[in-house]
Specification:
The structure holds 2 protein chains of 2 kinds. Chain A is an alpha+beta fold. Chain A has 6 helices and 8 strands, in the order βββββαααβββααα. Helix content of chain A is 34%, strand content 25%. Chain B is globular and about 65 Å long. The chains are: A alpha+beta, B alpha/beta.
Chain lengths: 232, 195
């Protein structure tokens, strides 16, 4: 991208740098995930003041050749977050941690940008986040190349049979097994068709969590550990 | 090698926020040249403060006693707690004189990405205070960010059925609407009060 060209982005995370500056992790439509420094952004008179918040779609320009770019201009396209205190903020923090930890740097992926953008917009409209989160996770894994194979089993490569039981192995997929099965074939077909209402929600969650943990080389996400206490 | 105390002093002063080498040099020369007595008082106070000031056992505010000034003040409303992120927030609210209850300082806010969880924020200690002191009202004064929201929500989710409110957001006093960002205006309209 040439300098001074406006680029659409979301802020994923920001931290203080020095007394008045902010280093932000952003996710841009054309250039993927990157870090920018906003100099003086904490001063009330700064043109960046108040803009560097997550979940609002921003337009920015930046300059610099090193890995850390310098933010030169900022504008807000839409502010997507409502400020009412709700449990949604947990889900949103979780999604941003996922994006920070799972996304490689500078890997531009416009589909992924659209997916994230739609997730944020939908999360405002919906009260129940569970299915929205699962849909996002499955699509995200797909786009990053860690997609789960819902079509065939891993041994015989036969199509998933609604009347057979399966176990799920994180890095590989579904294996036919009558011993302590995780899913029925019908469950798997339902998930494939994104018909989550008939699938046990804890099983569905385990499926995406196991795959995400595998992608993160066995590490769990902090947000999950923090918010797990609440769900008990 | 001889010791360069002047240089050491300048270096030491640069650890202060907003103080670069040039300002540190000016401060050092002022203290040594113009106000030696003030410098001595400053040095001894600083040393004493660093050694004696720790966290208030109840609210985690900075104090040189077991309990801070607010927590030990019997005239304050002891059934209300205002939850803030940092000691500077306590000073900011105290300077208004508009709040007569007590405080609890979280020393941060929930931030999964940075690994800050409820343990770091002392939420368990807060829950014990709420229970043992029969607190009737909580005022959440965490920042207006997603992390601030999640922190507030997390506390609300863990406490028994007591009144929980959150400070309102809106137009600064003396501010003109045209210079206020649209989100703040939206918040201000949502949180409007009857006159």
């Amino acid at each position: 991208m040439s300098p001074n060209e406006w680029e659409e982005c979301f802020l994923l995370h920001q931290r203080s740098y020095g007394d008045t500056s902010i280093i932000a992790e952003i996710f841009t439509r054309k250039s993927g995930k990157m870090s920018v420094i906003a100099r003086g952004a904490k001063k009330p008179k700064s043109k960046f003041f108040g803009y560097l918040v997550p979940f609002s779609k921003l337009q920015i320009t930046y300059s610099g050749r090193s890995e850390l770019k310098t933010l030169t201009n900022i504008d807000r396209e839409i502010f997507l977050l409502d400020n009412s205190l709700s449990k949604k903020s947990y889900s949103l923090l979780y999604i941003n941690e996922l994006m920070i930890k799972l996304l490689p740097k500078d890997a531009a992926n416009e589909d992924l940008f659209n997916l994230y953008s739609k997730f944020i917009e939908d999360s405002l409209k919906l009260l129940e986040m569970e299915f929205l989160l699962r849909n996002f996770e499955i699509d995200l894994l797909d786009m990053l190349g860690y997609g789960i194979n819902f079509q065939t089993d891993i041994d015989a490569h036969e199509p998933i049979d609604p009347s057979t039981d399966y176990i799920f192995i994180a890095e590989r997929g579904f294996q036919a097994s009558s011993k302590n099965p995780d899913f029925s074939g019908q469950d798997i077909i339902n998930i494939r068709n994104r018909n989550f209402t008939d699938v046990p929600s804890n099983k569905l969650k385990q499926l995406t969590q196991a795959t995400i943990m595998f992608c993160l080389e066995g590490k769990d996400l902090n947000s999950r550990q923090i918010f797990r206490r609440l769900q008990k | 090698m001889t010791k360069d105390l002047l240089n050491d002093l300048i270096q030491a002063l640069t650890i202060l926020p907003g103080v670069g080498k040039k300002s540190a040099q000016r401060m050092a020369l002022y203290l040594l040249d113009k106000n030696k007595q003030g410098a001595k008082i400053m040095a001894s106070t600083l040393l004493e403060a660093v050694e004696d000031i720790s966290r208030c056992k109840r609210c985690r505010m900075l104090t040189s006693n077991d309990l801070c000034r607010v927590c030990s003040d019997l005239s304050r409303d002891d059934k209300s707690i205002c939850i803030v992120e940092s000691p500077s927030d306590v000073l900011a609210i105290e300077s208004t004189g508009g709040y007569k209850g007590k405080y609890f300082v979280l020393l941060g806010r929930l931030s999964p990405i940075e690994g800050v969880g409820p343990e770091e924020l002392g939420i368990d200690e807060l829950l014990i205070i709420i229970e043992s002191e029969g607190i009737e009202e909580l005022i959440l004064a965490t920042s207006s960010t997603v992390e601030g929201d999640a922190t507030g929500m997390y506390i609300k989710d863990h406490i028994p059925d007591i009144k929980v409110s959150r400070i309102s957001y809106g137009i600064p006093i003396g501010g003109e609407l045209e210079y206020v960002d649209s989100n703040t205006i939206a918040q201000a309209i949502q949180g409007r009060t009857e006159v």
